[in-house]
């Protein structure tokens, strides 16, 4: 459940300066929205996903549904808002700087009351997993809690600070975050400490994955019943990542051949990445330079910045979650008593793709999450899920926009898919 809309993508040679005019190199109109993109990736891998969202009753909305149907996504739970436009986003892709700039216009809000009338039960019928992209949080909370009551696992994406996201994350069995979310949410100065603090704030989550851009992705997986967690060695997360796992990835890359595991729609060959894990659970602790009070102040500032960027100034606390009872201040107090998390740590590299083959990173995170959805629903091992997700995200980056580059199942090797 989450966002769905239209993307207007303009590729330019270089990002314009203020008050400057320039011509686009390429202009495309495509379906967009984090949730819709992720479900498209999952559908092309072989799942049969259903989307719960709300779009306008306009022609854009008709086009959105047509595109989703073409990829095999069930849209019977997509609500329409007569007289309202569908959500859309302007995206400027800067070829020279390798950046993308997004300006989003939301559509009509989804009222929690609209989730009644049997929609909750109908949407969850036969579901193996429920995914939320962090938007439409009030209505999403109703669906998440109903899913939990029915024993259906919940995955929540934390791409950026959003109002109400803290409460939705508290319902999650699985969490995937962007590279910058942990530091914004927790205020921790060091990324490793921020990833650890994020997992600590989510005790219900069995695992948390944080994507790291060109640095790959890191997974913290809590031990299951019977795992030898009590005798786990104690180390900082930074020590584990930089002192053990990243050297192991480098050694694996040096020893492995350059095999192709995917051929992108452009014909570009993509090689699989590598995965390294600790031999078992590790008692992860924070770095000695950590300052909880400073982290709380930084998290508050990040919340205020997020609110301002969403034309919602003055409501920073609702973005940072500081007033939700499980916010930064409460976490800092708890951490002083029992700091850290015991977890097995896995680090995955990015897939092997020449830099010159990267056209656009828009939707790479959605491609990653769509692969995670596929992996969970088909019972893949977590390290294998991360390797698949890296390849699908790389394939996406070979074309402009979030969906054209998403690979079909036939473009991937059976070994990579776990079949």
From TrEMBL:
<feature type="domain" description="Carbohydrate kinase PfkB">
    <location>
        <begin position="15"/>
        <end position="225"/>
    </location>
</feature>
<dbReference type="InterPro" id="IPR029056">
    <property type="entry name" value="Ribokinase-like"/>
</dbReference>
<dbReference type="InterPro" id="IPR011611">
    <property type="entry name" value="PfkB_dom"/>
</dbReference>
<protein>
    <recommendedName>
        <fullName>Carbohydrate kinase PfkB domain-containing protein</fullName>
    </recommendedName>
</protein>
<dbReference type="Pfam" id="PF00294">
    <property type="entry name" value="PfkB"/>
</dbReference>
<dbReference type="InterPro" id="IPR052562">
    <property type="entry name" value="Ketohexokinase-related"/>
</dbReference>
<feature type="domain" description="Carbohydrate kinase PfkB">
    <location>
        <begin position="346"/>
        <end position="408"/>
    </location>
</feature>
């Amino acid at each position: 459940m989450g966002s769905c809309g239209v993307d207007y993508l303009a590729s330019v040679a270089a990002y314009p300066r203020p008050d400057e005019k320039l011509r686009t190199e390429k202009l495309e109109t495509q379906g967009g929205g984090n949730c819709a993109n992720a479900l498209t990736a999952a559908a092309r891998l072989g799942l049969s996903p259903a989307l719960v969202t709300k779009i306008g009753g306009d022609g854009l909305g008709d086009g959105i549904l047509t595109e989703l149907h073409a990829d095999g996504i069930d849209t019977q739970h997509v609500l329409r808002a007569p007289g309202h436009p569908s959500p859309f986003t302007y995206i400027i892709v800067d070829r020279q700087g390798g950046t993308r700039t997004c300006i989003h216009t939301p559509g009509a809000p989804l009222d929690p009351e609209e989730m009644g009338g049997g929609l909750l039960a109908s949407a969850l019928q036969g579901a193996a997993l429920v995914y939320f992209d962090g938007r439409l949080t009030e209505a999403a909370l109703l669906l998440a809690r109903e899913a939990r009551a029915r024993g259906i696992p919940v995955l929540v994406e934390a791409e950026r600070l959003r109002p109400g996201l803290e409460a939705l994350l508290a319902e999650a069995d699985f969490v995937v975050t962007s590279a910058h979310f942990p530091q914004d949410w927790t205020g921790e100065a060091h990324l490793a400490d921020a990833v650890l603090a994020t997992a600590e704030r989510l005790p219900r989550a069995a695992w948390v994955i944080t994507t790291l851009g060109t640095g790959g992705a890191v997974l913290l997986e809590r031990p299951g019943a019977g795992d030898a967690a009590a005798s786990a060695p104690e180390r900082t997360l930074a020590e584990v990542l930089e002192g053990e796992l990243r050297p192991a990835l480098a050694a694996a890359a040096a020893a492995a051949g350059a095999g192709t595991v995917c051929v992108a729609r452009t014909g570009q060959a993509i090689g699989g990445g590598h995965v390294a894990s600790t031999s078992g659970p590790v008692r992860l602790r924070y770095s000695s330079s950590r300052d909880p009070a400073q982290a709380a102040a930084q998290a508050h500032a990040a919340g205020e910045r997020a609110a301002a960027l969403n034309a919602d100034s003055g409501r920073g606390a609702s973005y940072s979650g500081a007033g939700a009872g499980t916010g930064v201040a409460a976490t800092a107090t708890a951490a002083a008593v029992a700091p850290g998390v015991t977890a097995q740590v896995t680090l995955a590299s990015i897939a092997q793709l020449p830099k010159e083959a990267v056209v656009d990173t828009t939707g790479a995170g959605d491609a990653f999450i769509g692969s995670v959805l596929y992996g969970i629903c088909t019972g893949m091992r977590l390290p294998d899920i991360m390797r698949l997700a890296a390849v699908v995200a790389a394939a996406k980056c070979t074309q402009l926009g979030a969906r054209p580059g998403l690979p079909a199942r036939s473009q991937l090797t059976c070994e990579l898919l776990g079949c």
